[in-house]
Amino acid sequence: MSEPAAFGVTPIGKISSPFKQKFAIPRQPALADARGSVGFLPPFDDVNCLRGIETYSHLWLLFLFHENLEQGWTPTVRAPRLGGNSRIGVFASRSTFRPNGIGMSVVKNLGTELVGGQLRLHVGGIDLLDGTPIIDIKPYLPYSDSRGEAEAQLLNEHPLPAREVQFTEQAIAQLQAQPHKDLKALLVQCLGQDPRPAYRQSQDTDPKTYQVIFYDRDIQWRVVDGKVLVTSLQQVS
Q: Most exposed among 35, 80, 151, 154, judged by the fewest C-beta atoms under 10 Å?
C-alpha cells in the first residue's frame, strides 16, 4: 500500500471564548451555556460565505487542537471517564491527542455580525479554548445527524460528575463587582462537572486549591464535603 498523501489545512478563522485555559473547559459541547464568536480570516471573511446560514439553528465547528499538535499521538489514550487508568483506542475516544489534531463541536447558531469591520459568527454551547483555529463550518442536519438509536455504553457506565457549586461571601461580592453577567452560571455549569484530574475526583474533600481563568478573572476553588466551593475571583492583571 502506498503512503497516504499529505494535505494542508488552512484555518478560516479563530474563536473568541471565555475559556482562557484548557483546564475546566466542558468535556463536550452543550454541557455549559458558554458563548463565543468566530472571527473570520481573509479570504473567508466574505459575507457570501455565510449566505443562508441563518436558516440553521445549530452548526458543526471543525477545529484544531492547536496546543496539543506538537505532543503527537499514541494508538491508545487514558480515558478520564474510566478514572484515568484504563486505556482505550484513540479512535474510540474524543481525546485531544489525535493523528491530525482535528476536533468537532455542535454549537448553537446565534447569528452573524460585523464587529469593527470583521465578520463574526456568534455561537453558543461551546467547549473551545480562546483562540482555537476553526478549519470548517457545516450545518447541523437533525434528520441525519441526530440518531435516536445511537448508544454510548461508556457514558452509561461512567456518568459525568455533578457536584453542587457554592460561593464564599468574598466570591459573591467579587461576582457582583465584575462585568460578565454569565460568569456565575458558567462557574456552576463547568466546575460542577468536577474538572479535577480523574484520580482526585473520588475525593470529596480535597486540600488542594485549584485555579482557572474565565474571561479576565482568575478563579480559585476547592472541593469540600462533596461540594465545589469558589473562594475568590481576582481580575487578571
A: 151
